[in-house]
Amino acid sequence: MIILYIIAGIVVLFFSLQFFMVIKMRFKKGKDAPSLSGSAGKLIQSGNKALFYFFSPSCRACYAMTPMMEQLSRKNKNVFKIDISKDMDTARKFGVMGTPSTVVVETGKIKEFLVGAQSESRIKALL
Fold first, then answer.
1. How many CB atoms lie within 10 A of CB 38?
2. How would you class 118 by CB atoms within 10 Å of its CB: exposed for 0-12, middle for 13-18, buried for 19 or more?
3. Among candidate residues 47, 56, 107, 48, the one with its CA nearest the CA of residue 78
4. What is the pTM of this model?
5. Dist CA 44 CA 63 (whole Å)
6. Mean pLDDT, rounded, for 32-44
7. The predicted structure's pLDDT at residue 42
8. pLDDT band at 79 (very low <50, low <70, confident <90, very high)
9. What DSSP string runs through 47-71?
10. Rounded Cα distance, 85 and 64, in Å
11. Nearest to 95 by CA among 48, 11, 17, 32
12. Burial of 9 by CB count in 10 Å (0-12 exposed, 13-18 middle, 19+ buried)?
């Protein structure tokens, strides 16, 4: 019986952490975008729309989204793919807590902060 309580506790803890992460990310909407360097920083400062896709090589959910985001980043100069294993600083500035995460910045503010795999039609609608 004790093992059942332990398993139930682990399941509840897992879902609670997931729920907390999603809620925390949603509260980032409307906040100022962080200051970045390079072309991404210039795009944010100019007030144009930018889409940031955060992923990691070990993320299973990222496998489906990453090829689609590669195509979009080649076609659009306002789409940025950020591998958090190589650029953790940018992920920290945005407050990314899990991958895949998609952040839309418009007029210097965070307009959308999505956690988890998204469909191609949803991503294109954000652009």
1. 9
2. buried
3. 48
4. 0.82
5. 27
6. 85
7. 86
8. very high
9. T--EEEEEE-TT-TTHHHHHHHHHH
10. 18
11. 32
12. exposed
Give ∠ CA 69-108-98 in degrees, rounded to 5: 45
Closest CA to 55 of 95, 115, 101, 13: 101
Long-range contacts, 113-121 (Cβ 8 Å, 24+) = 113/25, 113/26, 113/28, 113/29, 114/25, 115/21, 115/22, 115/25, 116/61, 117/61, 117/62, 117/64, 117/65, 118/65, 120/68
As given in the structure block, the two tokens for residue 3 are: 């093992």
CB 75 within 8 A of CB 124: no
Instruction: Read off the tokens for 27.
Output: 């509260």
End-to-end CA distance of the chain: 52
Tokens standing for residue 96: 């990314």
The residue length of the chain stands at: 127
Tokens of 59: 């993320």
Tokens of 55: 């992923």
Check pLDDT > 80 for residue 26.
Answer: no
Angle at 24 between CA 126 and CA 56, to 5 degrees: 65
